Amino acid sequence: MTLNWRKLNIFDHLGDSWGSSVVVWWLIFVVLVFALAGVFSGWVFPL
User: Fold this and answer.
1) Which of 2, 5, 27, 33 is nearest to 14 (CA)?
2) CA 47 to CA 44: how far, in whole Å?
3) Measuring CA to CA, which residue among 23, 5, 6 is closest to residue 14?
4) What is the pTM of this model?
5) Which sign does the torsion angle of CA 11, 14, 16, 17 carry?
6) Furthest-apart CA pair in the chain: how many Å?
7) How far is 28 from 45, CA to CA, in rounded Å?
8) Around 16, how many Cα atoms within 13 Å sit in the side-chain half-sphere?
9) Average pLDDT for 18-39
């Protein structure tokens, strides 16, 4: 499999509605995963 970086349009339409951006949803997912990992590991609320 090869990727053509010139035709890859991940960053297109970033000025449109925020909900239609794949990058925004990936960032939300990554932040949520790290937040949940921090909460359930005891790093945020140590007992």
Assistant:
1) 27
2) 10
3) 23
4) 0.58
5) positive
6) 50
7) 22
8) 8
9) 87
DSSP per-residue codes, 33-46: HHHHHHHHHTSSS-
Amino acid at 43: W
Neighbours of 26 (CB within 10 A): 11
CA gap 38, 27 in Å, rounded: 16
Q: Which residue has the tokens 């297109």?
A: 12
Grade residue 3 by pLDDT with cuts at 50, 70 and 90. confident
**Residue located via tokens 């990554």:** 30
CA 42 from centre of chain: 23
**Confidence grade of residue 29 (pLDDT, cut at 50, 70, 90):** very high
Q: What is the DSSP letter of 17?
A: -
